[in-house]
Design goal:
With about 450 residues, this protein is an alpha+beta fold. Helices cover about 65% and strands about 15% of the residues. The chain has a single domain, classed as Outer membrane efflux proteins (OEP) (Up-down Bundle). Helix 2 crosses helix 4 and helix 7 runs antiparallel to helix 8.
Length: about 450
């Protein structure tokens, strides 16, 4: 029986890898994603909108100036005894008025809220940037893991094909049974199915990375050999949790939300307080054709400067109920802050122990890889001298390549886990990708 030929899809993927453009580093693809990724661009636009909204709150402390102008035509008809008066005249008027708030506590609180809203916008943009870093890195390592998986499956297919050919030769010369050939054929058919699945998984992962960065046929740089993973985090988990309490954008947003709620209470309480404004106006009225009392043209100029004082006395208990509402919302913001702090602390601990566990798994799998290779060599030798059967060699091969796949995935998980730990603690920056980039093939 002839061995099945490689699938057309396999050849296409090989040609794609060979003929693709120069491979890209993680930093290069992240730079592309910053200018393409729709969620990040949406967050950036929202940031700009929030800054503009925050500036709107300043208007309540600045003067307001208005200009009014009018033009009218009147007809005056009057009959007194035998004397009739008919006269038409026009009126032209213009006025400029200005007002400067002197004491408006509600406006002052609104302006303070605007400043807090600007800080909230910055925290939201920081969170979006950290999320983009992790998403690009996840897609990057997913492609590398899929490539490794396909490579290992193909290597296993070659090894199984060799074992299948040996089993057939041994059967032909009568040194083994048909069972060995059938076992090897079954394992070969299984590996072919695994290869098809691995090819499809790689294709999907590459499409996901292309979609993430806005570039077709991306080709990530693999890890440089020998692989040297970064050391375990030096700080203990308590330090990371404390760092997250100080830096995490989610906690910053919740704290700012509490501050904004407190200022909202101050605004509600200002409903009982007086307001004081400085007002000024300048007006001009012209009657070029006279008026109802005279036929002579006239021009009148008026100006005024003063203070406008207002003191609320009773508003139907609206202010008292508004204060109760804002106090309840303040309690809600405080509870939301507590919930966010607990969630972030738990996420930071999970990320920290995940990195520690991942490093331990890498070391264990490296030892398992060496042991699996030794076991395979021993089984091959035993098969040649007749103390092992074909299935023993096939199982050893499967165990070795499965261990290689698990080891490669564990290494990617450690690198990604380090970024997620920094994200969980709120200190992840684009510069942190440089450390990961240094581990890749140049």
């Amino acid at each position: 029986m002839n061995l099945p030929r490689p699938l057309p899809l396999t050849l296409a993927l090989v040609a794609l890898f060979v003929g693709s453009a120069q491979a890209q580093s993680l930093v290069e693809l992240y730079a592309l994603a910053r200018s393409y990724d729709a969620p990040y661009q949406s967050a950036k636009a929202q940031y700009d909108a929030n800054l503009a909204r925050a500036e709107q709150a300043r208007a309540g402390l600045l003067p307001t100036v208005g200009l009014t102008a009018g033009l009218s035509r009147s007809q005056f008809d009057n009959t007194t005894g035998s004397v009739a008066t008919n006269r038409g005249y026009g009126t032209q008027n213009a006025a400029v008025s200005a007002s400067q708030p002197l004491y408006r506590p509600a406006n002052t609180a609104t302006y303070a809220q605007g400043l807090k809203q600007a800080e909230v916008a910055q925290a939201q943009l920081t969170a979006a940037e950290q999320d983009l870093i992790v998403r690009v890195s996840q897609a990057y390592f997913d492609v590398l893991a899929a490539q490794d998986s396909l490579t290992f499956v193909r290597a296993q297919k070659a090894a199984v094909a060799e074992q299948l050919a040996a089993a057939k030769r041994n059967f032909e010369v009568g040194t083994s049974t048909i069972t060995d050939s059938r076992e090897a054929q079954a394992r070969y058919d299984l590996v072919l199915a695994q290869e098809i699945a691995a090819e499809n998984d790689l294709r999907v992962k590459m499409l996901a990375l292309d979609q993430q960065v806005g570039k077709s046929n991306t080709h990530p740089n693999p890890l440089a050999a020998p692989v040297a993973l970064p050391a375990l985090p030096q700080q203990d988990v308590t330090t990371w949790v404390q760092q997250s309490a100080d830096n995490h954008p989610g906690i910053r947003q919740s704290r700012l939300a509490l501050d904004i709620a407190r200022l909202e209470t101050q605004k509600a309480e200002a409903g009982h307080k007086p307001t004081l404004d400085l007002t000024a106006s300048l007006g001009l009225t012209r009657n070029p054709d006279g008026s109802t009392t005279t036929g002579l043209a006239s021009r009148t100029t008026s100006s005024a400067v003063g203070l406008a004082f207002n003191l609320p006395l009773f508003a139907g208990y609206a202010i008292q109920n508004r204060i109760r509402e804002t106090l309840s919302l303040e309690d809600k913001a405080r509870a939301d802050l507590d919930a966010t702090q607990r969630t972030v602390a738990q996420g930071t601990r999970s990320a920290f122990f995940g990195v520690q566990s991942g490093m331990g798994q890498v070391k264990a799998l490296e030892a398992a890889e060496a042991s699996s290779q030794s076991a395979l060599d021993a089984n091959k030798l035993g098969y040649q001298v007749g103390v092992r059967i074909n299935i023993d060699v096939l199982n050893s091969q499967s165990q070795l390549f499965q261990t290689k796949r698990d080891l490669a995935q564990a290494r990617y998980n450690v690198l990604l886990g380090g970024l997620k730990l920094r994200q969980a603690s709120g200190v992840l920056k684009a510069e942190d990708l440089q450390g990961v980039n240094a581990l890749l093939v140049k």
